[in-house]
Amino acid sequence: MSFFSSNPFASQVGQRIEKATNEGNASEDWALNIEICDIINETDDGPKDAMKALKKKLVGNKKWKEVMLTLTVLETCVKNCGHRFHAYVCKADFGKEMVKVIQPINNPPTCVQEKILSLIQSWADAFRSSPDLQGIVQVYSELKQKGIEFPATDLDSMSPIYTPDRSVPEPARPPQPIPPAVQPQTAPARQPSMHQQPPPQPMMAPQPMMPPQPMMPPQPMMPPQPMMPPQYMTGPPPGQMVPPQQQPGPVSATPEQLAKLRSELDVCVGNVRVMSEMLNELSPATADISDVELLQELNRTCRAMQQRVVELIDRVTNEEVTGELLQINDDLNNAFVRYDRFERDRKSVV
């Protein structure tokens, strides 16, 4: 009896968590993840047993694919389970255990760092107004005070944390408002939430921050390509002041000029994608010097491109192109935040 009580994967939900987070899985098993949520919601010991298994998979685990799969299961459960499970997740002790996973001494990949920071940030925002769920808010505040940079998020576009109906009612408690949480992705449909007044919406599963295939070392990549300035964007040499009457104004580009501009923007998008892929794959403590040098070159090239993108945002009159420029500028800013964090972590372990 003592063996089974001490084994976090011996319980009904623990067995499924062990299977759902196995390193050999090709990708997330959403059907199994939803089954885990059902067990948590419908059994008395589900929340406690699930947390035991999830903590065992997170704490001290250097199999980073398993860690990412565990974080995806955890995020799915927070979105689809009730207050009993939230009470465990939002304890300050658990939040601090998650922070330990991404300490530089563990050499976690960037995708793991960003996933954990993103979850802490979204839960702190979601449960800020719940008096009995303030532990995670405390952890988030402490990290902010230490100067930790969190991934950029658009809280206005995020879906609310979604709690499905239960076949086994939870103990009575005062209703707590649940603010917006993390943006979900596609998964099987669910029943309406008992905490929400709007019409029922399908249950969504969180988008993983890692590719479904196993983590592989970065492949050789082409050097970044500079974006040439559009021909119709002429002006004085850099550093030379333009008299007020000669300041450039809005530009209505011809179809040929728009085609050329889009071609140049494709180069910029490609460089941002390569930069993001490298940040996903590289570990600050073990990155090869040649990969670091390529990443640094990508950073310099993308920052130069951003200057041009910002100039074009104010000048191009085509609304569709302006929208593309704004999106590219956001993607660049996100990539720079991730790169700066990577460099800080790399220098701290050198």
Question: How would you characterize the overall build of this protein?
Answer:
- The protein has helices at residues 2-6, 12-20, 30-42, 46-58, 64-80, 83-89, 92-101, 110-126, 135-145, 255-281, 289-315, 319-349, and strands at 184-185, 205-206.
- By secondary structure, it is mainly alpha-helical.
- A two-stranded antiparallel sheet has the order 1-2.
- Helix 3 crosses helix 5 (64-80) and helix 4 runs parallel beside helix 6.
- The model is unreliable at 154-248 (pLDDT under 50).
Mean pLDDT: 75
In oligomeric terms, what are we looking at?
single chain
Question: Within the largest sheet, what's the order of strands?
Answer: 1-2
Radius of gyration: 24 Å
The biggest beta sheet, please?
Answer: 2 strands, antiparallel
How much of the residues is beta strand, in percent? under 5%
Catalogue the unreliable spans.
154-248
What structural class do the secondary elements suggest? mainly alpha
How many β-strand stretches? Answer: 2
Give the CA-based shape.
elongated
Distance between the termini: 48 Å
Helix proportion of residues, in percent?
A: 40-55%
Order of helices and strands: HHHHHHHHHEEHHH
In DSSP terms (H or I, runs of 4 or more residues), the helix count works out at 12
